[in-house]
Amino acid sequence: MLLPISMSANNKRVRRAIIKILWDYGPMTKERLADMLQKHKSIRQVPSPNSLSALLCKNPQVVSLGSERVETITGVKATHMLFGIDSHLIQCEDDLLYSTPYNIMSPTQKKGALKCPTCGRRRIFPPDENRCLHCVRNNE
Ligand SMILES: [Zn+2]
Q: How far is the CA of 138 from the centre of ligand 1 (A)?
């Protein structure tokens, strides 16, 4: 799949909002997430369920946490995947910032980002660290 060189501003806002919602409300299906994005003031266009899955799978801050069985009023059973924050990587709210991928950072955040000498990711480093949060966590 070819990716556009720069993501649209709306897409970046969507990706930042996804992380905040998953952090605040815990694991949920992409259907519930779409509902919550709909109520979000800064989001003009909520992505389709398919693009939402792509955004979730591409984000290193998000993991899939099994699935939930749902039954509709007509008795049709379906399995919906649950997505949540990677709790090994992200242990407190500040970690949300330190694990934000470079391409969805705001312009101000980009100015504070450094290239990690261990893995090459561009991230805002946690205080008193000389490498990114991914590498800090992998060494714990
Ligand atoms: Zn690193």
A: 9
